[in-house]
Write a structure and sequence with these properties.
Elements (H helix, E strand, L loop, with lengths): L48 H5 L2 E9 L11 H9 L5 H8 L6 E3 L15 E5 L4 H5 L3 H12 L15 E2 L5 E6 L10 E4 L4 E2 L2 E3 L2 E6 L4 H13 L31 H7 L11 E6 L8 E3 L8 E8 L14 E8 L13 E3 L44 E3 L7 E7 L5 E3 L10 E4 L5 E9 L5 E8 L6 E2 L1 E6 L4 E9 L7 E11 L6 E10 L5 E4 L4 E3 L6 E6 L13 E8 L2 E8 L5 E4 L8 E9 L8 E10 L3 E5 L4 E3 L3 E10 L10 E6 L2 E6 L5 E7 L5 E9 L8 E10 L1 E7 L4 E4 L4 E8 L12 E7 L7 E6 L5 E5 L6 E8 L7 E5 L3 E7 L4 E8 L5 E11 L4 E2 L2 E5 L2 E14 L2 E10 L3 E10 L10 E7 L5 E4 L3 E2 L2 E6 L1
Parallel strand pairs: 1-2, 1-3, 1-5, 4-8, 5-9, 18-25, 27-33, 35-41, 42-49, 43-50
Antiparallel strand pairs: 6-9, 7-8, 10-16, 11-12, 12-13, 13-14, 15-16, 17-19, 19-23, 20-22, 20-24, 21-23, 24-25, 26-28, 28-31, 29-30, 29-32, 32-33, 34-36, 36-39, 37-38, 37-40, 40-41, 42-44, 44-47, 45-46, 45-48, 48-50, 51-52, 51-61, 52-53, 52-54, 54-55, 55-56, 56-57, 57-58, 58-59, 58-60
Length: 947
């Protein structure tokens, strides 16, 4: 043996219990627990501690036949490796499963056989028969024959360990191993040996009957029969969880361990026997054969449950196990020898409660629903709680792993806390800092009486505040414990492992606990920017944002959170922060010290207690500052004159002047530019070359990188320039000559002459004797002269007024006073004399000296006698006779002493003239002073004739 055999001791209680548990049995369990291995009363000499711990040699009789030679590549060395080598081999299997308690060694030889090596444990035998003929002998006879064939190479007396003259299977294990195919259809058997004595000892043994087409599991199965006297358990439905289950026709290296039931009886492992309710760690069966026995003292010790942890894993002797997880066996030891489907000493308890078949229509080979693994969708069950038989249970079964912590519910009081999810993994419960989170933990009173329990948390991080729950539960009543937990405000996010414990209120030693996970999660934070989308550079940014918590009812505001505002863009960046108030609004109003442009504003908040960090980015425009223009120039001016265009440019927000900027200035279509001075004012002179009109006067600023453009417009009156006319045309003409109307224009001497060619002269002619006025228009040339002819002008004394037409858009004005134009009829004459009273009732007399035109001038004097004296003259300015009326202006002498001018009108009423003819006369001195006015004089004597 590789290790000292384990002593059969009283099974130990579950050692993995919560603090306060007892290490001794509790009623109704006895202090000295039963020996379920019943070492003192084994089922057989070999199926016992003795068989399980007796090391012995193993001899392989490797036979070939005339018609069935050794398969290629399967010589003695090959099979030595398979029987005696490292994993996987027959020898290694028993060492590993017995944990070193049972070791098969190579049987010693006296000589090498058939090309083999000495002491390799393999005796190669060439049978001088065909295989079919050989098999006619029968198995026992065949075994005897092969032993006799091996005798020359082996001294069998060396195996008689106790010297009693016989060899048993406790002293030697013999494999009869044939070259195949078709020894037993790929399977194997065990048979006795016909009586034979070799080297002085009787061979009282059984041998295996295997061959080269027999898989390794079957070879081990048959070895277990002959070495340990085990019974086939095909019909018990053990599947691939026990080497004594069906192994035929599996893959060549198909492997599976034996159950803890065999380990128990062979002394290869001691069980843990829980006597109090609580958790225990069920480690993989490969680890020292660890397993648990659950029994009810009231049911006796022949019927109980074995709980083991099986792990299907490549490279192990469980690599062909049907499933992984907790495996529960129901044992009826008093039925040990039974090998029928109906009466089973060992039966697997599957999660779904179904009973696997034995060998009805083929032996049960196992399935994926044999083991308890709630993480497997096919086996979601987590509690084995039989309703008949021993009153015990296995609860809180976790997901399959190398160590499965399960709750053993045995007789007596107990409390189960089961902080696992439905897949058998530790629960993961989301909790929020600063809030009282209610943790819902499944619990159960596993005792047989009503009891009261307290449930609380432990292993909490510093600053976390736990609560507790009390519950009174009836016998085996499941419930949910509601345990408050308030994580610290600064609890790190992520998963923390804590524990929950349930204790009997009156007996704290009745308790259980379990770890689980809390996942610290933060409430979602909504961060909404509510501030200005833009502001001018240099002004307050107007940042505001609201922080709310959508995870709380009504999305309440979050108070006290620091909100950061980060502005970043082409002109640089700036930062500011604010703290949210009771309304959840945080504000910051830094001066925008960056140049205008399109920026991004990132509004962010670090984690604040239970509130998760948040960030939002919005576009933000740093605007150019507004500017303003005020018109400071003229608002009225004349054509051709210079006018001042001026405006003051200022910052529209603070009113500061903006020097050094270029502004545009315009009066109507005429424009100029100017640069603003220190006071923000810019001015320019514009000489108006546009027609009179009400036009816009505009000042404009195109803007710059800092300031927005602006303009201002006021009404500007462009007036006409004043023009003076001097009449230069005819004063008198004798029809039919057409008079020439002419004038010379002179503009104001203001130093800014206009274009006279844009002017016009209108000659308005007003008749004296007739009733139809006439007008003539002439253009003015660049020198100021305007000339036109008035053809066909009726004979009359015309008053001529020269003006610029009102329709002219540039000029206004005209001649001062009215000029007289006499159109005369040279064929008419005036004669006669007449007298009558004037307006002063004084006698006045007009004498016409036969005034007539001689083709060159008017001749013959006119004489007027009145209260002023006498006037006499013959220097005629004009004589106009039209119809029965005449107008005459003549220059002469007054009283022969000084010159004077006489203008008179004659109305010829026909003969005899008295009472019908009339005249009026006005006499003026050279200064224009009137010397005499007759008023209307009707002749009282004489006759005035217009011939």
């Amino acid at each position: 043996m590789l290790s000292t055999p384990k002593a059969l001791t009283t099974a130990v209680i579950v050692s993995v219990l919560i603090s306060g548990g007892s290490a001794t049995a509790a009623p109704p369990y006895p202090d000295d627990l039963p020996d379920f291995a019943h070492r003192d009363d084994p089922h057989s000499e070999r199926y016992s501690f003795t068989g399980g711990s007796t090391d012995r040699p193993m001899l392989v009789l490797y036979a070939e036949f005339n018609d069935v030679p050794y398969p290629a590549g399967q010589d003695a060395a090959f099979w030595e490796e398979r029987f005696f080598g490292p994993f996987p081999s027959v020898r290694d299997y028993f060492i590993e499963n017995s944990h070193g308690d049972l070791v098969f060694s190579r049987a010693l030889e006296t000589d090498a056989s058939n090309g083999g090596a000495v002491n390799d444990g393999i005796v190669s035998i060439s049978v001088d028969q065909d295989k079919g003929d050989f098999l006619q002998m029968g198995r026992s006879a065949e075994a005897k024959f092969l032993l006799e064939e091996a005798d020359p190479f082996v001294d069998f007396s060396d195996f008689d360990r106790n010297g009693d003259g016989r060899i048993t299977n406790l002293e030697l294990v013999v494999h009869r191993f044939d070259a195949d195919p078709d020894l037993v259809g790929g399977c194997g058997t065990t048979r006795g040996v016909d009586p034979v004595t070799l080297d002085g000892v009787d061979m009282e043994i059984e041998t295996t009957n295997d061959g080269t087409d027999t898989n390794l599991a079957t070879i081990i199965h048959e070895t277990t029969h002959v070495a340990l006297d085990t019974i086939d358990r095909y019909r018990a439905g053990v599947g691939r969880f026990d080497i004594m289950g069906p192994t035929c026709n599996n893959a060549p290296l198909s492997l599976r361990r034996t159950t803890a039931w065999h380990l128990l009886h062979l002394g290869w492992a001691n069980p843990y026997i829980p006597t109090r309710d609580g958790y225990g760690d069920v480690n993989g069966l490969n680890l020292s054969g660890e397993h648990f026995i659950l029994y009810d003292p009231d049911e006796g010790t022949d019927r109980y449950y074995i709980v083991e942890n099986r792990i299907r894993e490549d490279g192990t002797y469980d690599d062909s196990a049907s499933d992984s997880g907790l495996v529960i066996w129901e044992i009826n030891d008093d039925l040990y020898t039974s090998d029928t489907n109906a009466v089973r000493p060992i039966e697997i308890k599957r999660p779904d409660g179904t009973i696997p078949g034995g060998c009805n229509g083929g032996c049960y080979g196992g399935s994926g629903i044999d083991a308890w693994d709630p993480s497997d969708d096919d086996t979601p069950q987590r509690a084995f709680a039989p309703t008949t038989g021993p009153r015990v249970a296995v609860r809180a079964i976790p997901a399959a792993s190398g160590s499965m912590r399960v709750f053993f519910d045995v007789r007596g009081p107990g409390i189960l806390v089961d902080p696992m999810d439905e897949t058998g993994h530790p629960m993961r419960i989301d909790v929020t800092p600063e809030e009282t989170n209610i943790l819902r933990i499944p619990v159960m009173n596993t005792g047989e009486e009503t009891d009261t329990f307290r449930f609380e948390l432990f292993d909490l991080p510093a600053g976390w505040t736990p609560g507790f729950d009390h519950k009174t539960l009836e016998e085996h009543e499941p419930a949910t414990a509601f345990i408050p937990l308030r994580p610290a405000a600064d609890a790190p996010t992520g998963v923390q492992t804590i524990g929950v414990v349930g204790r009997d209120f009156s007996d704290p030693t009745i308790a259980s606990n379990g770890p689980f996970e809390v996942n610290v999660v933060l409430d979602e934070t909504d961060l909404t920017y509510t501030g200005q989308p833009s502001a001018p550079t240099g002004e307050g940014a107007g940042f505001t944002a609201q922080v709310t918590n959508p995870d709380d009812a009504g999305t309440p505001p979050v108070e006290g959170a620091t909100v950061m505002f980060e502005l970043d863009g082409p002109g640089g960046s700036l930062s500011a922060s604010g703290v949210s108030g009771a309304d959840g609004v945080a504000s910051a109003d830094p001066s925008l010290s960056v140049p205008p442009g399109a920026y991004e504003l990132t509004v962010s908040m670090d984690r604040f207690g239970k509130h998760a960090p948040a960030s939002v980015t919005v576009p933000y425009m740093v605007e150019r500052r507004p500017s303003a223009l005020a018109w400071a120039g003229d608002t009225v001016g004349q054509y051709s004159d210079p006018t001042t265009a001026s405006a003051i440019l200022t910052d529209a927000i603070n009113g500061a002047p903006l020097p050094g900027r270029t502004i545009g200035l315009a009066m109507g279509p005429q424009g100029a530019s100017a640069t603003t001075g220190p006071d923000g004012q810019g001015s320019a002179q514009i000489v108006l070359d546009q027609p009179a009109d009400l036009v816009p006067a505009t000042a404009s600023f195109d803007g710059d990188p800092t300031y927005l453009p602006t303009e201002v417009t006021v009404a500007y009156q462009v007036r006409k320039e004043t023009l003076s006319f001097a009449y230069t045309g005819d004063g008198a003409v004798v029809a039919p000559a057409a008079p020439v109307l002419a004038a010379h224009a002179t503009q104001d001497a203001d130093g800014s002459p206009g274009d006279l060619s844009l002017a016009e002269a209108r000659f308005d002619l007003t008749p004296t004797l007739t009733s139809m006025p006439l007008s003539f228009t002439a253009g003015v040339d660049a020198s100021g002269d305007a000339i036109t002819v008035a053809p066909g002008l009726p004979i009359d004394l015309w008053g001529v007024e020269v003006t610029v037409p009102g329709t002219n858009l540039y000029w206004t004005g005209g001649a001062v006073g009215t000029i007289e134009l006499a159109v005369m009829d040279g064929e008419r004459s005036l004669a006669g004399a007449g007298m009558g009273p004037d307006t002063a009732s004084m006698r006045t007399r007009l004498t016409l000296g036969g005034v007539q035109h001689d083709g060159t001038a008017w001749k013959n004097p006119t004489r007027l006698d009145g209260s002023f004296g006498r006037f006499e003259g013959d220097a005629y300015d004009w004589v106009v006779v039209a119809g029965d009326r005449a107008l005459v202006q003549v220059r002469g002498m007054v009283n022969g002493a000084f010159p004077g001018t006489l203008r008179y009108t004659v109305a010829d009423g026909g003969a005899p003239g008295v009472g019908a003819d009339a005249f009026t006369a006005t006499l003026r001195d050279p200064m224009g002073t009137m010397l005499y006015g007759s008023g209307d004089v009707t002749l009282s004597s004489g006759n005035l004739r217009l011939e």
